[in-house]
Design a protein that fits this description.
- The chain is of the alpha/beta class.
- It is about 35% helix and about 20% strand.
- It has helices at about 15-30, 55-75, 90-95, 120-125, 155-170, 190-220, 235-240, 265-270; strands spanning about 5-10, 35-40, 80-85, 100-105, 130-135, 145-150, 175-180, 225-230, 245-250, 280, 300-304.
- An eleven-stranded mixed sheet has the order 8-7-6-9-10-5-4-1-2-3-11, with helices on both faces.
Length: about 300
């Protein structure tokens, strides 16, 4: 997956600055461009009198400040800005096309596991059809390594490809992870029956990991790759393992193609309890190579 553009949702906040730093660093390493997007929520339209094409002065100021900050980091990275009005997550998702990474920051992480901290990230991942990166504001520079959740779906294969590329870009180790945890499909009273069934599940997981490692090594022969089978729910295990990682990469669902609202259970669990910078990768879209950015209904104003 070649990332040619990073689109960053900005609002002048500390999490948005974390997203900007992450996107600019990624764009610099890939020769990509960066677009900062500030969306003025159009709920005020329900009040009545304001014109639909009026751009709020405060929104312009915030975008200008974020542009100045990004350009102070960017060096030779092409950085532009755009103001929009509408539903923030829907407007950001409208930029989601092949080759574009949507990036948002968050101050919410899953230190209290199971609480709904990532609802806006969930909304964006549900609406997008391309990769989405969610960056915690407290992401430490001491993190090392890329972790990828592995399954046997098109989205899982796309996640492995991107994770291998990122491990190569970051000159770090790639860890592939597969859960063998599942409910027993039968009533097994004897301990040896339960043990045998779990061992079969472990073997199946190792087989899926072997295929993923082969794929990643063919794509990026120079990276160090490790594999890990876990006997816990996949979402919880991935978040725990990713607490010290630079990135966690996961596939979106078990659907064959990218679809709106197709976020699967593992991705849902990971985003609700985010512990690290995380990228959600969707299955390839039909006609993905050469797709162009679609027309959208929201009002937009381009800066820079």
């Amino acid at each position: 997956m070649e990332i040619r553009r990073y689109v960053v949702g900005v609002d002048g906040s500390v999490p948005a600055r974390a997203a900007i730093r992450w996107a600019v660093a990624g764009a610099r390493g890939r020769g990509a461009r960066v677009t900062l997007v500030h969306v003025a929520d159009d709920e005020w339209g329900a009040v009545g009198s304001q014109l639909i094409d009026e751009v709020d002065d405060d929104a312009q100021r915030r975008l200008a400040d974020d542009l100045a900050y990004a350009r102070s980091l960017g060096g030779d990275v092409e950085i532009t800005g755009e103001l929009r009005m509408g539903s923030p997550m829907a407007e950001l998702a409208s930029f989601s096309v092949p080759g574009t990474m949507i990036v948002v920051g968050t101050h919410k992480t899953g230190f209290h596991y199971g609480r709904a901290f990532g609802s806006r990230s969930l909304q964006l991942a549900n609406l997008a059809t391309g990769p989405v990166a969610i960056i915690p504001e407290a992401a430490s520079r001491m993190r090392r390594g890329v972790i990828v959740g592995v399954d046997d779906t098109p989205a899982g294969a796309a996640a492995v490809d991107l994770a291998a590329d990122l491990a190569c870009d970051h000159h770090c180790e790639l860890t592939t992870v597969r859960s063998s945890e599942a409910h027993l499909p039968f009533d097994a009273e004897a301990a040896d029956e339960r043990r045998d069934w779990q061992l079969r599940r472990d073997d199946e997981a190792r087989g899926v990991l072997t295929s993923a490692v082969t794929r990643a090594r063919a794509r990026q022969p120079g990276i160090v790759i490790r594999s890990r089978v876990v006997r816990r729910p996949a979402g919880a295990a991935l978040n725990e393992l990713a607490r010290t990682a630079e990135l966690l990469v996961i596939g979106d669902s078990r659907r064959e193609r990218a679809q709106l609202g197709s976020l699967g259970a593992v991705a849902y669990d990971v985003l609700l309890n985010l512990s690290s910078p995380t990228i959600v990768v969707h299955a390839p879209s039909v006609g993905e190579a050469g797709a162009e950015q679609p027309e959208t209904e929201g009002e937009s104003h381009v800066f820079g």
